DNA sequence: AGCACGCCGACT
DNA sequence: GTCGGCGTGCTC
């Protein structure tokens, strides 16, 4: 009987994107199962790489099975499967829908620590010349490839290799290590301990204590080293001695690096639901009990109590003995949110988000895998949580762009959630105050079931009054200003009443750059077609695309003028203005610069929440999910910067942002007020935001989308080609257009090819096209074919990416 | 990705 | 004559 395994190897190329067949050596027989990671030899040099086992089977005659001379699996990297059958199937789905390699999909599903790293070694296997031995190998048996490279004598070394004096060894390094602590297990029976006690010398108090401790332990009890010391006063050295005498065994215990272990969570109980919440709850629970894979769209205004519906439906899933996933945008995964879940469900909750260290993420993942957690709360990638028997999947703030990954595999968590719901026969709930047009339209067509929450859960809370200020008029009154007169008056008023103010600066489409007032010179990035952004925290100019960094110039490099100044409405500049206007006010600034440090975000919010500041000034990040009862005024300084961007979703994004930020005002008994400053006061996105009328906005925007042949009336695919040479990239795109035109129906529309808005990034040129279509039965095949045929060009440095339903067009 | 093989220019 | 450039094929 011969055992073989099909393995997906860690070589992300089109040609190797198929399973390879390996022999399972006798000593690993029975150990290897689908979903495990293994170490396999690959290619001419038999370098060792990581692979995923897809399936195993036994076969009488391997030659019959495979025309290749199969190689053997070297080792197993896992004790058990790390991906179950569902995940292996989901990887197939992702591969097809996102045009990516299977290996990339598989790796994306696991915590990053489980991605193997490789180390290459040069190993002495025979005598080598003395100078090589001492100068290159420094007298050692083996050196790393990097050390060999640094010696500058690679050609000599390669010759020695051909003579079989040196060998190359490939090492697959496993990085996922559970944190372990040491524990003690007794190896002696009660009687044996008595015997040992007789043999003890007088005065061996430590050993006597150890024996007493062991005697009190059951056969398979494990006591931690710490406990041994605390309870019995047995020191580590005594334990080691005990181990040497064969009295006990020292074992490793896996412990969880619980990132929230320090906190205690008081139990929080379910609140009563109003009629609308109850109706939503009942619809979802009924679907769950019927094992329906219905997708719900829960459209609920800010403060309508969506979260309470989530919590209670999850509780119901747990009661049914099932599990649940709740996705929230990265930015809303605040301690407040986590707290709310932990206090309702306690230890049953695992949290996955980017703020955790790699090790912590792995531990949370392990916690789910060993079924210690049945509720998973996390950002996009939490959709891969290895839960079984899922009863419910919730995606909060469904419209958020962060649910789509913006590099390969370009999956959308919403699509995968629906796929998993079909696998588990469970409902999906998409929740938002401002659903994406796509989802809202699907609800209209009854693909999703629409559930509406139109009342505030806390009835005392009033919807805020929204004031739209026409900045064109403000400008006509005098010089260009950041703050309009009405906004200034209202801020003054709140400061007098000791109430809090939130000010938002819309940074989308904005950056703070440096410009010479004499000649207009703007400091550009040397690698990209974009100006450098000023970063006050590091006192440098940085490129947001490639990371290039340089000093702040004091004189203009072109005309040598000293009048080279900071431009653009950055948060720092607004902060300075505010301090001039309101010297007594305590101002907090929250932007990428002040929240970069781990935990800084949390700390700023706490400071504001504790009323240690009067004004919170920030970018988009303040719009999401914070809940401060004393905030009675929200000001949006520039509502329309996004409106001018060449993106058909700009109105939608503006509406969503304004609605969200307005929701920050008047969360409690005090009435809230919102001031929106804009140059486009009559734009429908701003008008409907003022009226807080999502349905009105939806109708208007649908009309605009219909006119422009955009989603949800058309599907879209974006293809981008990039190369160091501008011509090569452009030429490729024109070829692709020709190829597409030959097969596409006349109803489909191709926009472009055009250079991307920032054409050059990191010294590569980017060209793109956008395809809009309603129905193209062969599209999948054609796009795959394009990728296949492009393989030759990939060798020459051309990169092609296909983004299905892209969210960003610029 | 990374290695071998193979075919061309410019060196001891 | 050979060393080494990188274009191409292939990896169970």
TrEMBL record:
Reaction equations catalysed: ATP + H2O = ADP + phosphate + H(+); Couples ATP hydrolysis with the unwinding of duplex DNA by translocating in the 3'-5' direction
Presence of the UniProt keyword Thylakoid in the record: no
Domain Helicase C-terminal: 540-705
Cofactor(s) the protein needs: Zn(2+)
Annotated Zn(2+) 1 binding sites: 516, 519, 556, 559
Presence of keyword Metal-binding: yes
Domain of life: Bacteria
Keywords, comma-separated and alphabetical: ATP-binding, DNA replication, DNA-binding, Helicase, Hydrolase, Isomerase, Metal-binding, Nucleotide-binding, Primosome, Zinc
One record GO biological process: DNA replication initiation
PROSITE patterns for this protein: HELICASE_ATP_BIND_1, HELICASE_CTER
GO cellular component assignments: primosome complex
InterPro entries with a match to the protein in the record: Helicase/UvrB_N, Helicase_ATP-bd, Helicase_C-like, P-loop_NTPase, PriA, PriA_3primeBD, PriA_3primeBD_sf, PriA_C
Record-annotated Helicase ATP-binding domain positions: 287-453
EC number: 5.6.2.4
Residues that coordinate or bind Zn(2+) 2: 525, 528, 543, 546
CDD domains per the UniProt record, alphabetical: DEXHc_priA, SF2_C_priA
Major enzyme class: isomerase
Alphabetized SUPFAM superfamilies for the sequence: P-loop containing nucleoside triphosphate hydrolases
Segments traversing the membrane: none
Pfam families, per the entry: Helicase_C (PF00271), PriA_3primeBD (PF17764), PriA_C (PF18074), ResIII (PF04851), Zn_ribbon_PriA (PF18319)
Family named by the database record: Belongs to the helicase family. PriA subfamily.
Subunit-level organization: Component of the replication restart primosome.
Name of this protein: Replication restart protein PriA
Organism: Vagococcus allomyrinae
Native organism taxonomy: Bacteria, Bacillati, Bacillota, Bacilli, Lactobacillales
